[in-house]
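Run log // design_07
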């Protein structure tokens, strides 16, 4: 038995027509485009970048939105910033949970920071309040700890051991 000669690699076999590997050309797809052409990107729903070329319109009568300064800051470029005393109050409040003297500083910085925030309109009210809460919690915790230590020491020294 002789086998028919094989075509070179990449060539279609002799019994199939050249073109499509399945023997028939792909069907012409006519749908969205005109004259058998595929639609361009975004044609089915409109140009996705058209909003950049149009004048901005505010729907539903909301009016003009304020223009922000560089880097998304508040309008007019005036930035209140965060009060430094509020930051110091928060940091010393966290440290005060582990070291008692810092709790006193957290309370002082928190009250001073809240006063400045009211007067100047700076940001950081939440930090100042958090620093005050942590400072007072630290103070109460350390006072209770000292009371327990003194009570245990007094009880232990009176036992005669």
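design_07 sequence
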């Amino acid at each position: 038995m002789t086998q028919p000669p094989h075509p070179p690699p990449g060539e279609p076999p002799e019994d199939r027509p050249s073109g499509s590997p399945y023997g028939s050309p792909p069907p012409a797809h006519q749908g969205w485009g005109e004259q058998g052409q595929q639609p361009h990107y975004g044609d089915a729903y409109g140009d996705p970048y058209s909003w950049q070329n149009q004048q901005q319109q505010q729907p539903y009568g909301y009016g003009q939105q304020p223009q922000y300064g560089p880097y998304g800051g508040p309008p007019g470029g005036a930035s209140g910033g965060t009060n430094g005393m509020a930051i110091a109050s928060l940091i010393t409040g966290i440290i005060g949970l582990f070291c008692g003297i810092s709790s006193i500083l957290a309370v002082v910085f928190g009250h001073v920071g809240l006063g400045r925030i009211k007067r100047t309109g700076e940001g950081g009210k939440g930090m100042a309040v958090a620093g005050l809460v942590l400072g007072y919690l630290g103070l109460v915790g350390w006072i209770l700890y000292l009371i327990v230590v003194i009570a245990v020491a007094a009880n232990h020294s009176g036992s005669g051991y």
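The radius of gyration is 39 Å.
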